[in-house]
């Protein structure tokens, strides 16, 4: 599912990544690393004595939404490439927004680094994120519920 945010952005992926790095420095990160492969990009940073890792899934350039128009007509190669690049730029802008929002929530004392970034904190013993570790357990917990849904909503923990 493609999001709406930054769907028409002209800001390049490199610029978004540089903005993320600059923002992290401004909010106190002590290190930053970046890498990519054909299916994802990864950024890693240390902040508040925690290592945080975001993996940004990258779309497949061969997806029909890039190779064909909304009406089903095949795109020429450069139009297909531009549609793909637009989706990549949009993903980077969204990641930039998410990280800024989380850091600002921490700076405003709305939440702690651990609360905002919990799913992305890297366990130093396994090199897995907390989200990678807990997600299968959480899915199983929901699967084991009688109707797949939790009990009536309550505002108390």
In words, what does this structure look like?
- The chain has a 3-stranded antiparallel β-sheet.
- With 157 residues, the chain is an alpha+beta fold.
- Helices cover 43% and strands 14% of the residues.
- The longest helix has 31 residues, at 77-107.
Summarize the structure.
The protein is α+β, with helices and mostly antiparallel strands and 157 residues long. The chain contains five helices and three strands. It has one domain.
List the topology elements.
Layout: H1 13-26, E1 31-36, E2 40-47, E3 50-57, H2 64-67, H3 77-107, H4 113-117, H5 130-143
Helix pairs in contact: 1-3
How do the SSEs run, as a string of H and E? HEEEHHHH
Tell me, briefly, the overall form: globular
Query: How would you state the average pLDDT, rounded?
Result: 91
Q: State the separation between the terminal residues, measured CA to CA.
A: 32 Å
Main sheet strand line-up: 1-2-3
Largest sheet: 3 strands, antiparallel
> What is the count of β-strands?
3
Unreliable residue runs: none
Share of helix, binned: 40-55%
Summed up, the helix count is 5
Q: What count of structural domains?
A: 1
Structural category is alpha+beta
C-alpha-based Rg, rounded: 19 Å
Q: In percent, how much strand structure appears in the residues?
A: 5-15%
């Amino acid at each position: 599912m493609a999001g709406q945010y930054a769907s028409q952005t002209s800001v390049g992926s490199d610029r978004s990544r540089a903005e993320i790095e600059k923002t992290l420095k401004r909010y106190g990160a002590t290190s930053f690393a970046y890498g990519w492969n054909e299916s994802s990009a990864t950024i890693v940073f240390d902040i508040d004595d925690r290592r945080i890792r975001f993996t940004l899934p990258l779309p497949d350039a061969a997806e029909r939404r890039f190779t064909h128009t909304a009406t089903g007509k095949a795109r020429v190669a450069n139009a297909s490439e531009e549609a793909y690049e637009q989706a990549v730029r949009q993903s980077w802008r969204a990641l930039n927004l998410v990280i800024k929002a989380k850091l600002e929530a921490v700076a405003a004392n709305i939440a702690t680094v651990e609360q905002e970034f919990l799913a992305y904190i890297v366990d130093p013993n396994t090199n897995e994120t907390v989200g990678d570790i807990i997600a299968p357990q959480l899915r199983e917990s929901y699967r084991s519920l009688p109707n797949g849904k939790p009990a009536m909503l309550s505002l108390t923990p």
